[in-house]
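Quick one: structure tokens for this chain, please?
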Amino acid sequence: MEATEVILKTLNMNARFLDIALSGLTDEQLNESPDPESNPAGWLWWHKYRVEDNSIAHVTGDPAVWTEGGWPEKFGLDIAPGDLGIGHTPEKARSLKFRKKDLAAYAETVREKTAAALGAMSPENLDREIPDIVPDQTIRVGEFLGRSLTIDNFHHSGQICYLRGHLTGFGWAPI
């Protein structure tokens, strides 16, 4: 199995678990924070797919789904085209009110582009050097994808699962 297949299969397994965590939540619950210093689940969901979207765009050189598909306008929120949510204050994160249907559509569109991009990558492509997000540094594509797609994605999925338990109590996960 190729590394890109492992990444995609892992992302998709995580997405199915996240679907369970988000199932039954209302838009109001998605936008609820447990305290003034925490991000709501809706913001986390948006942010994790913005990072995935931006990461694939960075690696392929193609436009991000967010800008190419006019998603800032579709969401109807004050979010600039290049905004990933990095550096948002808790107040900014809580001020953005997300709708579940918009987030689900964006997530699906991003994942389709991710699947296509990963499916087109060769093992040699994973060893290619690209500019890192850290100024004046480079990183291999495989390392970049491992960091930005898996670690960031799972980190925020875990936060969303924790918030689901906070919002609805024990027993939401079918274990």
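The chain has a mean pLDDT of 93.
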